Amino acid sequence: MFIDSHCHLDFPDLANNLDALLLKMQENKVSHALCVSVNLQDFPRMLSLTKQYDHIYASVGVHPDYENLDEPQASQLVALADDPKIIAIGETGLDYFRIKGDLSWQRERFRQHIRAAVECNKPLIIHTRSAAADTLKIMAEEGADKVGGVMHCFTESWEVAQQAIAMNFYISFSGIVTFKNAKELKQVAKQIPLDRMLIETDSPYLAPVPHRGKLNQPAFVRHVAEEIANLRGVRVDEIAAATTHNFFNLFKANRNNV
């Protein structure tokens, strides 16, 4: 079985066709999925959607790309996380690629999420783009290692991966690892210890080969696993088993919900 550790099933492109997508998951042996929060405005709707399905989990958080909103406070995130369907805090982190200028607000938002995760003892889902040094610095300063988490849709160097792993984090690969031009990332995927690896789609974005350019969906996570298995010279079943074990080990989700 495979698990999609990061998707956005509540986004309209997927939510409007959810029954068919869930059937595709089943056909492709994708047993569970984690629907990841990006803002608090849409959080109630997202949570309501996940509550309809035992095998779909949720997180709570505000993505670093969302500007000009009421900043989430740690206490607010802790309160919202007090639900059995919420198994993580995030996605949170830093993104210096899409947004420029004074990003002190982004760094403070990231700190609030880490503090919330530590307080409610739930792992973090971290997004970082063009900001690895500051991301790791804040993780260390705020004690993110106390709860650990996942560096989602990882595209950084082996050195960054090692530093994150040292702080009790997993490394998650998306469809990007299947792209021909992702040569450095493929090398990282070959080196990550199997007990520190997760797989994801980040759907509806970043569809893997052979579906690149199309709408992504959780069923396609098997292609991520197949690529990693090919890179490492192992059976895909080995990648599936390891990443499934890692998902439940990190998020403490009920693995009997299928």
Number of domains: 1
Main sheet specs: 8 strands, parallel
> Radius of gyration, rounded?
17 Å
Query: Outline, from the CA principal axes?
Result: globular
**How many helical elements?**
10
Query: What is the highest CATH level, the class?
Result: Alpha Beta
What is the straight-line distance between the termini?
Answer: 11 Å
* CATH topology-level fold name: TIM Barrel
The residue ranges in which pLDDT falls below 50 over 5 or more consecutive positions are: none
Summarize the structure.
Helix content is 40%, strand content 17%. The chain is an alpha/beta fold.
Could you explain the architecture of this structure?
- With 258 residues, the protein is of the alpha/beta class.
- It has a single domain, classed as Metal-dependent hydrolases (TIM Barrel, Alpha-Beta Barrel).
- Helices cover 40% and strands 17% of the residues.
- The protein contains 10 helices and 8 strands.
- It has helices at residues 12-15, 18-27, 43-50, 74-80, 104-120, 132-141, 158-166, 183-191, 221-232, 236-251, and strands at residues 2-7, 30-35, 56-60, 86-95, 124-129, 149-151, 169-173, 197-199.
- The chain has an 8-stranded parallel beta sheet.
- The mean pLDDT is 97.
